[in-house]
Design brief:
Elements: H1 2-20, H2 46-54, H3 56-61, E1 64-73, E2 76-86, E3 92-96, E4 101-104, E5 109-112, H4 121-133, E6 143-145, E7 149-153, E8 156-165, E9 177-181, E10 188-193, H5 201-205, E11 209-219, E12 222-234, E13 238-254, E14 268-270
Antiparallel strand pairs: 1-2, 1-13, 2-3, 3-4, 4-5, 5-14, 6-8, 7-8, 8-9, 9-10, 10-11, 11-12, 12-13
Length: 272
Amino acid sequence: MMKRIAIILLFFCVLGCKEEGKTEKVPVEPNNGIGDGALPPKVLTFSENIEEAHNKPAFKMQRAVSFDIDLDFGGKQRLKGTVSMTTNSSKVRIESEDGFTITFNGEMVGMKPADASAKNARFDIFTWQYFFAMPFKLTDPGTVWEDSVNRKLDGIVYETAKLSFKQDTGDSPDDWYIIYKDPETNLLKAAAYIVTFNTGKASAENNPHVIEYSDYTVVENVSLAQTWTFHDWDEENGPGKILGRASISNINFFIPKENYFKIPADAQIIEK
């Protein structure tokens, strides 16, 4: 009997020693990829946050986009028609309901009919498409950003930053913008700007304007503003009286046919 008890005690002693020797493996939380060899998430800049909110990759995946514009300035119709553009702004076409067409083929600007007034042709072909595509152009080559600061717009404080351009960037490299970012959505809220086209920088800075974006819609996963309002603007007080308004509608992404942005042979060429 004593021998049997001794054998049982020896069995439990050996079993206990084995349990003591075990090493328990504790599961490790992935910690969002940090700690398992992955890099931490990228911290976006002011301009990158806006581009992400508008879904720049989805916009750039498309070949071209068109939209109808009904633009009023000073109580008079400034432009009504259809703007078409490649999503990288390399080619642009405006078809006005007034009967003229302006085309930028990537190198030259042409206007038809050949006897139409070309006074604002270059301004129109580059300005309205740029205002439409601004949320996707904030990190284009040649852009220069200053540190962000807070400014008021319509009584609300927004994070803003100044955008300027390196020389030889576009038709008007002396232009600058004060970009306002919506604090809740990161969408582009407004852009104060100067227009140096056909005027000097000093003169333009005495007459700055601001464009406010609203009535956003989503087309092919891209956020786009359907209403623009233009105001006087100054650094201290922000927007002043309203100067104009644009309604944007019928936004469509498309693949342009061959020669869609070709300048007709009988068009007049608009020089700088």
